[in-house]
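Sample entry (164 residues):
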Amino acid sequence: MNFIQRIRASHLNRHGFVDVWVGITVFQALNVTLIVLFGNLEVGPQEEPAISLLEIAFLMLLIAPLAENLLLIAIAALHEKLFKRKLLFVVAPLLLTALHFRTPQHLPFPTSIRVIELFGFFYIFLKQYDLHKLEIGKRKALLLTSVLHFSLNGTVILVLCLFD
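Predicted structure, serialized as tokens:
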């Protein structure tokens, strides 16, 4: 049994966690690479950001994965209590996707693509949480989904650093 087969057969890969983790990380790397290569990153706000890049990285890698996934799970739990599981995996990811658009910001690609990819990521986070919460507990399932979120945000930072 080679290395990849051992990983895929391991207990960590229950419900395809490792497969999802690798898949969305590779997708995000390709996505950000295409944005950097074909998007016009020079167009946009010209003022200096009020927050340093180190603070942005800290927020993206530590605060956002835990806080956003906790909010996603809270919204899903509230929705499940009020409406059972009807449209659970549509409403909760859509609400969190909407929270990512505070102000109309210029993006180097269509906003509809950003909405679709954010919805997809939040759907995957919620689905992974739902698959794992009964088996390993709610706290550990939250940490697993936070690992996925951390990986996505870390991939963005890594790819942007490579192109910088």
